[in-house]
Amino acid sequence: MGIKWNEFFVTGDPLIFASQIGIALTLVGALAGLTYFKKWNYLWSEWFTTVDHKKIGIMYILLGVVMFLRGGIDGLMMKGQTAVPENDFLNAQHYNEVFTTHGVIMILFVAMPLLIGLMNFVIPLQIGARDVAFPQLNALSFWLTVSGAALFNISFIIGGSPDAGWTSYFPLAGKEFSPGIGNNFYAVALQIAGAGTLMTGINFVVTVLKMRTKGMTLMKMPMFTWTSFITSIIIVASFPIFTVALALMTFDRTFGTHFFTISGGGMDMLWANLFWLWGHPEVYIVVLPAFGMLSDIISTFARKTLYGYKSMVISIVMISVLSMLVWVHHFFTMGNSAGVNSFFSITTMAIAIPTGVKVFNWLFTMRKGRIKFTTAMLWALAFVPNFVIGGVTGVMLAMAAADYQYHNTLFLVAHFHYVLIPGVVFPIFAGLYFWWPKMFGYMLNEKIGKWHFWLFVVGFNVTFMPMFFLGLDGAVRRAYTYSAETGFGPLMMISAVGSVILAAGFAALVYNIYWSARHADRNIGNDPWDARTLEWATATPVQHYNFASLPEVTKLDAFWHMKKNNELQPLTEDEVEEVHLPSNTWIPIYMGVVFGISGFLLVFEWTIAAGVAALGILAGLAFRSFDYDEGFHVHKDEVFETESKWRKGANKGVKNHVS
Amino acid sequence: MSAKVNAALPLEYQTEQNRMNILGFWVFLGAEIVLFATLFGVYGVLGERYAGGPTQKDIFIVKDVMIQTFLLLTSSFTMGISIFEMRRSNIKGMLMWLVFTLLLGGGFLFMEVREFIHYVHEGATMQTSAFLSSFFVLLGTHGLHVTIGIGWAILLIIQILQRGLTPVTARKAFIFGLYWHFLDVVWIFIFTFVYLQGLVM
After folding, report:
1. Is residue A74 annotated as a catalytic residue, yes or no?
2. Which of A84, A288, B122, B155 shows the smallest number of beta carbons within 10 Å?
3. Which of B1, B22, B48, B168 should be substituted to probe chain A, the one whose Cβ sees the most A Cβ atoms within 10 Å?
4. For the domain A39-585+629-649, what is the CATH code?
5. Catalytic hit among A77, A78, A119, A439
6. Where are the domains of chain B?
7. Which residue intervals define the domain Cytochrome oxidase subunit I profile in the entry (chain A) (predicted)?
8. What is the pLDDT of residues A487-524, one digit of tens each?
9. Residue B39: closest CA among A247, A255, A253
10. Is residue A649 very low, low, confident or very high in pLDDT (cuts 50, 70, 90)?
């Protein structure tokens, strides 16, 4: 067991060697910089130990953006390799590793942190609460996600990357065919991050059920809150399945059991079933909050109440139920009976119905609205047609008989990129542009934003549209190269060029963040978009206690109606109450660290050492049990002073941002 | 977050944060049900794949399993009495029944470990066959939960001794009670679908 010491660091590949040096230099640079500018204390007390949902949300978003860079570089490497036939930029093994990490990182460490980050920041504000139900648990969720992400990412310089695809199907992912430790990184890192996600799910179910402000009944919640709530329920219902699947994978690989092996009575298809029992709901876990953000953004910039609110709610509930009943469509060709395939074909097609309802609702919301073409709205507009292409090709793939033709081709790859990029990434960008002023007190530049938008959307279509046709011509996915006779060359080249445009779009976002942080106007008022929901009733950036006095809600689009009815009177002294908030704590980050160490040792199959390190986890739990910190109170006078300050200056000399 | 106390309710439900914690724990138990359901599903799929190794009938010892079941079911009963005593603000009675619960839980664990050792001596290890892999992991997950529960309850007892019954300690004890009863329910399923079904298969 274990690994030879001379294999500890991955060696022999110039690309990886360069990144090892790069990472070492960045690390040293960051540590030196922090020490030189004396920022350690600030980082520790303001960020690392925080339990404030807003700061945790921002850290999640930062993690997502950084991981987007990593996953994006993986994608570019694949496109570079397949741009021309018989290319030898990456060898087969390296290509396998790159498409595996690309998939895992983009889903679990980009889409999830960005969405959970936005949920964290926005949901408590939208429901008029001062934090989530369990602020410490929230911090723990975040640090476990970081821990999992870090563990997964070091695999390519230490020990070797997983290489069995993001689905890690057995028997390929088993010890017999993947003898290295690469796939252990997959099993352990995702286990740790998954535990964090499960806790987030529990936290938000309780937050939405218990912490809504006075008058906000379930049917008066903003749509983003609704979708986040349903998403949280799906998380609670599906992540434990993945927990078990990954644990069994670890047992098979590390302790020699026979769950998914060919020998000893194991069953490889059991893995495929368990994986997709989680994996398909996971698709809706990432897409539903995105739908919710779009609903709020479209209704804000169309300046109308969301069309068909009730049917929206019914649709998301239906989607969440159906999401649990479609998993077999991921392996129609793997020997199910015709009856089983037909059943899952029908359930899969049925998902198009509630999704279609939602698309029409968005269109009808915009109908006769006075649409403001802000960057956030542009993303929402681009979402509709692009996502429909993804959806329609999804219905094509849902036909089990026809799936025999498309399965395992680039047609499928194009399909799910057309679902996940317009359906998740576009809304995330929309959400970032939309809520950025609330997070940081300045807006992202609209002009650079439009560069970002056009480059990204055009690049996206140029990259993935050719892949539909390549797939129909028979180009298989996950193949590291192809011969010139196949005729795939020209379309592959177009696709590769598209990916460069796509990357330029992302670079524009990064530049926009940098530019806006330095030059953007800080005097933007608390409601720059003339928005409709409660988060815009707070100061910009939001005070640490969110609301001076908890608002009372009578209608959907509460803030909009408050503005129309002139209910936003200046705060009087007796309305302000003392605010109780939880204290910072070191336990979550400590837990992240010990989980990371223990996980790392387990990856290398040093089980005894991993067990010893796991005692640190138990110690953390025990500390938490004896921690009776009651939090602290913000005094009335302090609240009143802060409130008067921003309310007096609010919206004075503010330029109109939505014309 | 608010410290408003509603004294008309039982101690553990008096503050809003307590009510949220209890609801949160119910949601967590929902996730636990999915976790165990998946393990049962795996056992259901692999339970008759022996790969030439022993079957359920070859290894199960009815008497020992009956003792385990008796110990764990009784511990659920004593847990209930402990919470009943807590509601009557009788700390002494509460702790006494809680200690009984843990002793019974410890007895269950002792029997389970003995059972596992016995199987391993007979050559039935988790590497032997898919049936035994799924058997050991399902039972082991339950046993691990019981072990963690015992450790948790000991921390709880110390806190109650230090602080007496407050809304916070009462809530912690109540939540532990939920957890303990849940483990009992899982055991009933294990007893039925693993042991009893194994013996009639």
Report:
1. yes
2. B122
3. B1
4. 1.20.210.10
5. A78
6. 61-200
7. 38-554
8. 999 999 999 999 999 999 999 999 999 999 999 988 88
9. A247
10. low
